[in-house]
Design goal:
Blueprint lengths: L6 H5 L3 H8 L6 E4 L8 H5 L5 H9 L3 E11 L2 E10 L7 E8 L5 H9 L4 H7 L4 E12 L2 H7 L6 E11 L4 E9 L8
Antiparallel strand pairs: 1-5, 2-3, 3-4, 4-7, 5-6, 6-7
Length: 188
């Protein structure tokens, strides 16, 4: 009976694992078709590129990483993060990522574990050939954790995507969830 599947859990993976660990209930999220995503979110989310270079182009500045929480389990490095444009205080992405370290060369693996650079920056600087394949787009009701992380006041609907990064042999490098703050002037 497919009705029993908790689609929010799946839709917000891997963020759901951080929420579970913190004892928080997941906010309500609804899958949407990429073509139905409102602008400016569609331009920033509905593509098969990495988020870091996409945001760097959109904001015309480098993205800095702020790691909110992280965990290393065997060769899987999970982190809950913010991306913040250089010279700014306001985050432009709240996200969660699972990085499969055994698929990375040593230098790149070390950079990931340092928690200083966004994964997109590491992939680019280390010339790691890869693909980016979004597998879901969604809208989510911002909860207090998201509002706090993104420095916004709710209630507001946020938009995001779930994305898979893979290497040239098709092996999974990372599973990513990216949620954008409300666009300026788009607060509900």
């Amino acid at each position: 009976m497919p009705e029993l599947i908790d689609t929010t859990l799946d839709l917000l993976y891997p963020l759901n694992e951080f929420y579970e660990e913190a004892g928080l209930a997941l906010p309500s999220a609804t899958r949407i078709n990429g073509r139905e995503m409102p602008e400016p979110y569609r331009r920033l989310l509905v593509h098969d590129r990495d988020m870091t270079p996409t945001l760097e182009a959109a904001y015309d500045r480098k993205m800095n990483l702020r790691v909110l929480k992280y965990a290393l389990d065997q060769e899987v490095f999970s982190r809950q993060i913010l991306l913040i444009p250089e010279g700014c205080d306001s985050p432009v992405v709240f996200g969660a990522i699972k990085i499969f370290l055994d698929e990375f060369p040593t230098a790149a693996r070390d950079l990931v574990l340092e928690r200083k650079l966004p994964l997109g920056t590491i992939l680019e600087s280390q010339a790691i050939k890869h693909f980016s394949r979004p597998d879901a787009f969604f809208e989510v009701d911002a909860d207090s954790s998201m509002c706090l992380a993104l420095a916004i006041t709710g209630p507001v609907k946020l938009y995001g995507r779930r994305n898979v990064l893979g290497n040239s042999t098709g092996r999974k490098l990372a599973q990513v969830l990216e949620i954008l703050p409300p666009a300026k002037g788009h607060h509900e």
